[in-house]
Amino acid sequence: MKFFLDSASLEEVKKANEMGLLDGVTTNPSLIAKAGGDYKTRVKEICEICKGPVSAEVLSTEYEGMMREGREWTKIAPNIVVKVPTTIDGLKAIKALKKEGIKTNATLCFSENQALLVAKAGAFFVSPFVGRLDDIGQDGMALIENIRKIYDNYAFETQILVASVRKPEHVTRAALYGADCITIPLKVMEELSKHPLTDSGIKKFLDDYNAALKK
Predict the structure, then answer these.
(1) Number of separate domains in the chain
(2) Distance between CA atoms of 37 and 15, rounded to whole angstroms?
């Protein structure tokens, strides 16, 4: 399973890269606003660090605007993937952009039917938002399991990119259910390496070593 960083912070991108966990990056206007700076400039800077797919989102909600922005995004770097909302206009844009050789990431997916539609339209990635489904009392990860079954049933090539990840459990279940990729905040990425027995084991080794030196 590929690990993408969900961030617009250059420092976080560098940290994830240093850990060997940077297969790609996802961004959106909210993350850019939080990090500060110009959206296009920041995405270009991220692409200079990350050679894997970097998802950059269109701001338009109508087909013509999505097409115009999608074409503009691809001029920034060859590894740009255009994030398009899972709407009727988004479906049209996904199909048309694919014909132009432009990869898309169908974002804000919340149902099996939406995932089915974007795969038929030709999306390169689909991004189901599991955390937001959890927020309204649903099991977001059950959606991932179901999408995997649907895509396998019909040999769709669209990759499942689990998004809106809030905790390590989301990562574990995504791997168990066969998701292709997962986009993770740096905080969650770092939490994956932690276990109390690891910490206590290190302490014991060091205590035993220091005790042996004193003999």
Answers:
(1) 1
(2) 19
- Residues sharing a CB contact under 8 Å with residue 129, sequence separation 6 or more, in sequence order: 108, 109, 110, 140, 163, 164
User: Domain holding 187: CATH number?
Assistant: 3.20.20.70
Task: List own/partner pairs for 87-94 with CB under 8 A and 24 or more apart.
Answer: 87/61, 89/61, 89/62, 89/63, 90/66, 90/118, 91/117, 91/118, 91/121, 92/63, 92/121, 93/58, 93/63, 93/66, 93/67, 94/118, 94/121, 94/122, 94/123
Any bridge partners for residue 56, and if so which? 82
* Rounded Cα gap, residues 111 and 147, in angstroms: 9
Tens digit of pLDDT for each residue in 33-54? 888 878 999 999 999 999 999 9
Nearest of 50, 49, 56, 51 to residue 27 by alpha carbon: 56
Q: Which candidate in 15, 34, 83, 95 is catalytic?
A: 83
State phi, psi for 127 to the nearest 5 degrees.
-115, 90
Residues 74 and 80 sit within 8 Å (Cβ to Cβ): yes
Q: What is the largest CA-CA distance in the chain?
A: 77
> Residue 205 belongs to what domain range?
2-214
- CA–centroid distance for 112 within its chain: 18
Q: Give the pLDDT confidence of 149-161 residue by residue, as tens digits.
A: 999 999 999 999 9
Q: Please give the single-letter amino acid code of residue 174.
A: A
* Annotated catalytic residue 83: yes
